[in-house]
Give the backbone structure.
Amino acid sequence: MLELITRLISKAKMLINRGQQRSVRAKKNIIASFLIKGVSVLIGFYMVPLTIGYVQKEQYGIWLTLSSVIGWFSFFDIGLGHGLRNKLSEAMAKDEWKEAKIYVSSTYAILGAIFIGVLALFFMVEPLLNWQSILNTELVDVKELRLVAIATFSFFCINFILRLIDSIFYAYQRPAYKGFISMISNIITLVIIIVLTKTTEGSLLYLAITLGAAPMLILLIVSIYLFNSEFKPIAPSLSYVRKTHFKDLIGLGARFFIVNISVIIIFATDNMIITQLFGPAEVPAYAIAHKYFGLITVGFSFILVPMWSAYTEAYVKNDLKWVLSIINKLKKTWLVLIGVGILMLIVSPLFFRLWVPQIEVPILLSVMMCLYVIVMAWGNIFVNFINGVGKIQLQLIIGIVGTVLNIPLSYFFAKTLGLGTAGVIISSLICIAYGPILAPIQFKKIINGTAKGIWNK
């Protein structure tokens, strides 16, 4: 038996280390991400019923909605994270390390200035906001809601700057590092929530502080450590901040910025739309269905995420044959995902009863969520490459159209046709048409060298 295990391990190592260095690096990160994310997923699933047990169902819905609303402010990064990812990947592919350090330093400077300003603006405007009206609830008093909003927004701004290191992980084609940080943050968060359930009454404020402080501390410690060790050659420095590079970063970033706004409005407004149409008590069912079927997205992202920067490197070096081989493998993987999604849909009623018996998830909601993640996975195969090579003008335009249509379509399907929360997902499916329909066409044109005009911008 021991000899058999040894042979299997040896064969697995051979398979992993076979192929181009770019492919080997990607395979190692995919395997590491699966292992790390598996732990994070288990923690996340356990944390949902634990959190609902700590605060009431409606309070949990309030926090989910507030978090998604505050998440809208992520558009203030004007796409700099994605811009840095591409520019840093290009610089490293050409061994231009001074340029790489300048891009990192300049991006931290711009993003830091932006979010300090955003935080200052928030503290000026916040006293004028009626949080009970915004969140459509009277369950939590105004004073506590204010404190929850202030804590959540403050941690969000700090963490957003610190999470810029994720773009560096991606540029280095090491997304497993990001997964490891998230796993450690989740473990610490879980431990704190368990302690809170034993020592305090349910408090939305304590929950908000826990969910914001834990990742902040981990990100800060990891950033300091890596910029003094492995990432020292590109560690941010004020002396390397260059205004001349702002244009490059903001030029590419601005296009990603508009795409990000579209994504935020199409995806992140769902909780707010549901809250306004049906009340915060309906948000948990949507969130639970999204978390469950989102496992398909999470699993597929393990493979897709390392490829973005790998595509950038391959495109710079004109290695299109490698790109095509990866895309063909991803298509075959997607076919497997369809079967996984159908199986998950069949067992979902039983799983929900065992996992969160206090939350009822309608079958129509489950069907639409399953369809949504599978369709989105197909589009992401091609969108990932297009983002990697920075030709996102068409995606930008279609994203703007989807942004305009999302809210009225959500109201039409959810309220007018009486489809409830499932109607919100139908709207999102229509608004993400670029990915599954147009992105494959654009990919083919770019690879064949026939992309002209907007297809090549």
